Amino acid sequence: MKFHISRQMIYILTLAVVFLIIVFVFAFAFLIPSGKAYRVARLDTKKVSYQVDSIQAEYDNVYDDLKTLQADNRHVISAYKSIFNPERFTKMYRPHFKSFTLSELSTHSQDGEFAVYEVNTSSLIQSPQGFYDFLDGVNKSDNIIGVNFPIDFKRDGDLIKSSFTMHVYIASAKKKMEEVKIEE
Amino acid sequence: MQYSFIKPRAKRLVSPEFKLLFFFFSITIGMLFVSYSFLKVKTLVYESNMEELLSKGETLKEGIVSMHEDIAFIKIQRRHAEGIYTENTVLKESIHNLFDLVPEKITLSQAMLKEDELVLYGVTPSKEVYEFLLQAPLRSIFHRSYTSYYAMPNGWYSFVSKNYLDRPVQ
């Protein structure tokens, strides 16, 4: 039996083979690698997203801790930042004394993270109670102030003449050393 | 005169079978392109998202480090402030105790307080009064205590008492 293939059929078969080759080449060269890349990108994104979520959770925890700490220590934080104003300080604490004067602030020295300014004080008190009240008040003042030795009490008639040194501490000394100005 | 029993068909450049085959393969290749484009676009979207996530992660990490530094600094400030407040309170208590220590019979004219030293100037009716009422408690507080007396015309004594604390050598 003679098998006859027409010319038209040959064209169609050739075209079919060419198309199939194109499809296979396209699938293997482009589609499958891009499918793999897509899957890898999706998995990586999921993994990174999970990591970022855990970092976000840690961030939120640390943020809450920081806010709580800031709220609990608001007075201390603002006290370390505030600028020492001798006039205001004298006005605030004069009621504890008969007379109260501050010397000019010395240039600062460094105590760890803090800049320390020294101010000499002389005052007249009627009884030691005024000095005790002053020490209680200093702990609640707008600045962090330490009363330091030497402290000298001397009788002056019915009054006591006292002189002592105070240290005013200001925070972020390293960062803000140049910015810190002491109001005169 | 007719030579064929069928009517002649119009000859076409492209046969219907060829058109059909072309149509199906075009659809196939079109679908492949659409799939490829979809995958490419989605991959780009994922990669872009990942970059954003990585950048966000870095920002968050930097934020965490910065907040930890802030927390540490606040803790340093709190410790430092508490130390100063405590020192002020201890100072107040020390001065309070010192003035409570001085009996009514003895009058102080000057008190100098240093870190490890207390110098008192005053007047006492007699050496014994001073030694029993003030010297004894001072000796229990300070490691070394020296007193000098100066006789006054009215029979009383003015005294200078120097008291020292010996700090342990570190």
Strand content of chain B is: 15-25%
Straight-line N-to-C gap of chain B: 138 Å
Q: Strand tally of chain A, please?
A: 5
Major sheet of chain B: size, sense and barrel closure? Answer: 4 strands, antiparallel
Work out the largest interface and the residue count of each chain: A-B, 63 and 57 residues
Which secondary-structure class do the elements of chain A indicate? alpha+beta
Structural class of chain B: alpha+beta
Helical fraction of chain B: 55-70%
Mean pLDDT of chain B: 88
Strands across the major sheet of chain B, in which order? 1-2-4-3
Gross morphology of chain B: rod-shaped
Based on CA atoms alone, the radius of gyration of chain A comes out at: 40 Å
Oligomeric state of the chains in view: heterodimer
| Helical residues, percent of chain A | 40-55%
Number of helices in the DSSP assignment of chain B: 2
**Shape of chain A, please?**
rod-shaped
Count of the domains of chain B: 2
Number of helices of chain A: 5
Please compute the radius of gyration of chain B using only Cα atoms.
51 Å
Mean pLDDT of chain A: 83
Notes on the structure:
The complex is a heterodimer of chains A (184) and B (170). Helices cover 53% and strands 24% of the residues of chain A. Chain A is an alpha+beta fold and 184 residues long. In chain A, strands 1, 2, 3, 4 and 5 form a 5-stranded antiparallel sheet that branches. Chain B is α+β, with helices and mostly antiparallel strands and 170 residues long. Chain B has 2 domains: 14-101; 105-170, Gyrase A, domain 2 (2-Layer Sandwich). Chain B is 59% helix and 19% strand. Chain B has a 4-stranded antiparallel sheet, covered by helices on one side. In chain B, strand 1 (107-114) and strand 2 form a beta hairpin. The termini of chain B are far apart. The chains are: A alpha+beta (184), B alpha+beta (170). Chains A and B meet through helix 1, helix 2, helix 4 and strand 4 of A and helix 1 and strand 1 of B. Strand 4 of chain A pairs antiparallel with strand 1 (107-114) of chain B.
